[in-house]
Structure formats: C-alpha cells, structure tokens
UniProtKB/TrEMBL annotation:
Biased composition (Acidic residues): 71-82
The protein's name: DUF4834 family protein
Region called Disordered, residue ranges: 40-82
Superkingdom in the source lineage: Bacteria
Pfam families: DUF4834
Length: 82
C-alpha cells in the first residue's frame, strides 16, 4: 500500500515539474537571448563610433630589460683555429 502511494505521489510530482519546466524554461532562455543581443548591439555601436583606420590596444606588456648579470661578463664570438 505504501509503495503504491509513493509511486503515485512521485509520478504526480514529476508531472508537475515537467509542466512547470515547459512554462518557465522558454521564458528563461528568451531572457538570456535578449541579454546577449543587447550586448552585441552595444559592442557594434561602440565599434561604429571609432573613426576608420583607428587602432585600439587593450593590453600592452611592460617593457623588459635585457641585462646580463655581472657574474657572466661579456661574450665574444670567435672561431677556433687549428
């Protein structure tokens, strides 16, 4: 008796969840699609505001100094003669 009651309740709960998912998931996805479209439109608008031929640099790494430690000294290329 308890097993049959449990099965009936679980089937009803799953049916309710399925019905609610059919209602609310399309609304959720439509909201995500609208948000992505707005971001895309804003990005295109910003790109149109820049004059043609202009370049925008987002990141410029810091300049690295190429220095030789004092312990290594200078290196001079030479050929060994035999």
């Amino acid at each position: 008796m308890i097993l049959i009651r449990l099965l009936i309740i679980s089937i009803c709960v799953l049916y309710i969840i399925k019905s609610l998912a059919r209602i609310f998931l399309p609304m959720l996805f439509q909201g995500l699609v609208n948000k992505a479209q707005q971001q895309q439109n804003q990005q295109q608008y910003r790109e149109q505001q820049r004059p043609n031929g202009s370049i925008r640099v987002d990141y410029m790494p810091p300049a690295q100094k190429k220095s030789v430690p004092d312990s290594e000294g200078e290196f001079i290329d030479y050929e060994e003669l035999k």
